[in-house]
Amino acid sequence: MTHVLIATTKPFATEAKNNMISIIEQAGFTPHLLESYTSQDDLKKEIANVDAVIIRSDIIDKEIIDAAQNLKIIVRAGAGYDNVDIDAAREKNIVVMNTPGQNANAVAELVFGLLVFFIRGQFTGLAGSELKGKNIGIQAFGNIGKIVAKIAQGFGMKVYAFDPYVSHEKIENEGVVSLETVEELYETCQYVSLHIPATPKTKESINYALLSRMPKNAVLINTARKEVIHEDGVLRLMKERTDFSYISDIAPSQKDAFEADYAGRFFFTPKKLGAQTAEANTNAGIAAANQIIDYITNENTTFQVNK
Ligand code: 3PG
Questions:
Q1: Does residue 100 line the site of ligand 1, with CB under 6 A?
Q2: Helical pair 104-119 and 143-154, crossing angle rounded to 10 deg
């Protein structure tokens, strides 16, 4: 019997969960559910004897991997897998996958939800500004970046992107100006939306030197990871330039410093909610369940990230 654990500190929408459970059962596997757990010990106990696990931003470190006796596959229902120790998994021949693109639309829509809310005075009734005719820069033109571009075009914005891993041709085919350097992106765009993963290379890469190039009334929108931000650099710029603002889906580590001195120039969601829609949960959850079944039955490793 193959046991599949769904372990989420931030539970899936009910509809998504029900779909996942029925897909797992129809494959003849046994589903197990661990939701809203508060200690890694609970996860350790539940993961000990299962063959597969589906997670979201849940932390799967070496300790958890070592506690898993039968684990063959971990699927991160989502895009970023910086929460999984993929090397520790590889050492134990455990396949790690993500479900790229499945929650991209939810994140892209949130970019504009946050941005419109913010530039319209956080809906207080103050006179705000409009997006039409303004420049938006998309840093990383992956699944999310591409949708952000489309929505921005709908708003009548001029759209620029920087992504060294995507060809100029692919970007320009979407009606987006593809820039040569990241510096150009920040110099050109009043709004910059981040869609880079958190890796050792990108960690704290969004720094003072880059941000200080942004034009007047600049807004940085971060629906990626707080780890990519050099927070001291952002705070320095907040102090030096009263026209600079920062909005983010998840508060920075130094949230208190923003609250103390920069009221009205930042907005942080209380909990990471970019992918928290019924649709995104359903898409990513179903993809995760199907990928597990396809790996266990057919050894399909298409979405493996730790080859
Ligand atoms: C992702 O990387 O897919 C998003 O950040 C969503 O994360 P979540 O599943 O924790 O909401």
A1: no
A2: 40
